[in-house]
Amino acid sequence: MNQGELNILIGGPAGAGIEKTGRLMTLSFVRSGYYVFGNVEHMSLIRGGNNFLRVRVGEAPHECHVEKINVMIALDKTTIEEHANEVVEGGVIIYDGENIRLDGIDTGKAKMLDIPLKNLANEELENPVMANTIALGALFGVVGFDLKDFNEVVAKVFAHKSAEIVKLNEKAAKIGYELAPKGDDTIERKDGKNMFLMGNDAFTLGAIKAGCKFVGAYPMTPSSTVLHMMAKWSKDYGIVVKHTEDEIAAAGSIVGAGYAGVRALTCTSGGGFALMTEMVGLAGMLEVPCVFVNVMRPGPATGQPTRTEAGDLRQAIHSGQGDPIKIVLVPGTVQDCFEMGFEAFNLAEKYQLPVIVTYDKSLGEGYFTVPPFEDDEIKVDRGKLLTQSELDKIDTYQRYLRTEDGISPRTIPGMKGGTHRATSDEHNEKGEIFEGAENRGLMMEKRMGKLAEALEDLPGPKVWGEEEADLTLVTWNSTTLACKEAADILVNEGRKVNVIQIRTAYPFHAKEVAELLGKAKKLVAVEMNYTAQMAGLIAENTGIKIDEKILKYDGRPMTAQYIIESLKV
Amino acid sequence: MTEMKDLQTSDRPNWCPGCGDHGILIAMKQAIVNLDLAPENVVISTGIGCGSKINQWIETYGIAGLHGRSLPIAMGVKLANPELTVIASGGDGDGYGIGMGHFANTMRRNLDITYVVQDNQIYGLTLGQTSPTSEKGAKGPSTPHGVIEEPVNPIRLALSSHCTFVARGFAGDMAHLTMLIEAAIKHRGFSLIDVFQPCVTFNKVNTHEFFRKRVYKLEDERHDTGDLVKAFEKAGEWGDRIPIGIFYQTEKPSYHDEDVALKVHNPAKADISNVDVGGLMESFM
Lengths: 569, 285
Description:
The structure holds two protein chains of two kinds.
Chain A: E1 5-14, H1 18-31, E2 35-41, E3 48-58, E4 69-74, H2 77-83, E5 87-95, E6 111-114, H3 117-124, H4 131-143, H5 148-157, H6 163-179, E7 195-198, H7 199-209, E8 214-217, H8 224-232, H9 234-237, E9 240-243, H10 247-259, E10 264-268, H11 270-286, E11 290-296, H12 313-317, E12 327-329, H13 334-351, E13 354-360, H14 361-364, E14 367-370, H15 388-392, E15 421-423, H16 437-454, E16 462-464, E17 471-475, H17 479-492, E18 497-501, E19 504-506, H18 510-519, E20 523-527, H19 533-542, E21 548-551, H20 560-568
Parallel strand pairs in A: 1-4, 4-5, 5-6, 8-9, 8-10, 10-11, 11-13, 12-13, 17-18, 17-20, 20-21
Antiparallel strand pairs in A: 1-3, 2-3, 7-14, 12-19, 16-18
Helix pairs in contact in A: 1-5, 3-4, 4-6, 5-6, 7-8, 7-13, 10-11, 17-20
Chain B: H1 20-34, E1 42-46, E2 61-64, H2 70-80, E3 85-91, H3 92-98, H4 100-109, E4 113-119, E5 122-123, E6 129-130, H5 154-159, E7 165-170, H6 174-186, E8 191-196, H7 208-214, E9 215-217, H8 228-234, E10 242-249, H9 255-258, H10 260-264, H11 278-282
Parallel strand pairs in B: 1-2, 1-3, 3-4, 4-8, 7-8, 9-10
Antiparallel strand pairs in B: 5-6, 7-10
Helix pairs in contact in B: 1-6, 3-4
């Protein structure tokens, strides 16, 4: 691999099988020991329009996308029209000249490789669906990537189908491969055994590891893959997965399951979360553990269903009326997704409150290459959940007993001697509705006090790069990945740049963040929203105002290039 | 043996004297005693409203949640631990107004939940507005010129929503209501009991006297509870004679009998100390 990385774009109309073709390709590179980052951009429709998949293949991990292309597979004219200008010197566009007429299109610096994909698929293989695989074979030929790994991937992916389909794919790829002109670059096999997965997959893995056994959810892009993966593994892991009538019922069902002592999750995006907020408040008041994941897309209202943004920070913190009783975690890397997917359930049970995990579509539906997660050291912690024998020793059990740390010993239905009512109205230590002024004050302090107690347990701000820098990028969510890459590029140019990533939004690590930011020489906030929500939160909690901001709210992912160009202005 | 005193809470009901809810509370407790259910194995989920306070005064587990949401919460409890007896309860505004979507969808799931609706055809706690079951023309502070729309018929709605146990009770007949609640709890599947519960403060039309004069028992007329068409016909009766009792009952597998995960185990009793996800991670390689 000449430049240490290879950038590929596959584009075409929705329904053309781009994702499936892309998957076979990326799995082949991952199997061969390379790091692949993938990002799918699609329109909110089932067929037609123009969708594309961007993939970065590298010897080292790259975890944000870049607007340059070495090889493109164009399954329609629009793909060439919109992206040919990104093709670098020496780059190749694979297309079918019988379907796409080039007249009038500026193909820039690209070398055009015309292969009669459709005709070959029909005539040689008697199967029109194989056109994409022929194109893929041609791509492998162009970049000098042996078909061995591809053939192994096909055998694995289609194992549950017929041997005939495996053979057909192998044959199709070979046809394309042989038609491609061979360049002087080749991609050699490397060692390494990695996973290739989305942020949503990583979060779900963490949740399953944590013993999540109930999921109540209503589908909403870009969170639905969490629901789908849970449903797929429902039987194997004994996870009850209920697709409910709406988001209110979904959130209500996890409050019920959490109350009954089962680790419960709901997944949604901003619009669905808006409906769930009454249940966030209820779980806070009842002190019931449960976990909400909100995978963000551009709002307000329907916004851009399949695009990306990080604009729900305030909605997460202030969901529900009154003072917020909850924890809000904001992962920024695929590793964070796994760790927080696990830890959210521990925190929910330890502090007996709802935990909201929120991250953007770029992270949730972006594909990353990572080694298998280390899960030997992490331990399930159920907090003050009583055992029957512990409960037997208590004379008069009180569910909302005031304790030093504000956390009361908890019973669940089925435990003898632990009956109580969890009541949405203000209540006394027994759980009975009680309107007294003194009691109200004490109960407020009990619930809110848990947050101060929890802070130490929550993931603090993380510094990427050197402690000392002339320029510090302050960020959260997957924008962290673009910031990291921008910092790396600038450091290579001899500048001193680092990144501070905020990982918990509520309660806030005011002291730690103030200390870190106080040391910085120059601060720039980098966010995927219009109002610089995290910078606002930082100002609110630390008094530190970040004047310089790089904000992106066009629904498309942040890139290192965008950050660097913005810094130069 | 569970006795009435085991279900007694330290504080006492604060409903208006003469409220139909007092009768429903006693009937619900009596049914739990008659079935000898251990208090710790019963969870009562309620919404918001006068009737939704019922679980404050029964010493079992309970969630007093949000307006209209007793059923989603009850669903979560039942699917988390199917061994529990789950009862949901709330008023007509709670269940047939704000909670209507949950009501219709929970019925078609045939979750093994007993749903007792205190139907007083009025919003009591918010001081007397008309409700989804108020008759056309009924007046209240939010509808001083009379309700324009037709009332919800919860019995007919249940019959057309695959509800497997559909009944109506009267708070003024506690022995009969106790029998209905017992039968509903024993029924393996979703059961609705719509209970006439006169609001002595705000509803001056549908009073104890109003119902006492009109109600008759379906069982006294040898109604066939297996006949859906007949049940639908009976559910339309309103006027001088109003039927109470079991309109319809049928046996079908309950939701938790068919869920793939619940066939494997009871989630509330699962060992979650160290779930192995090695195989899952392998699937991403």
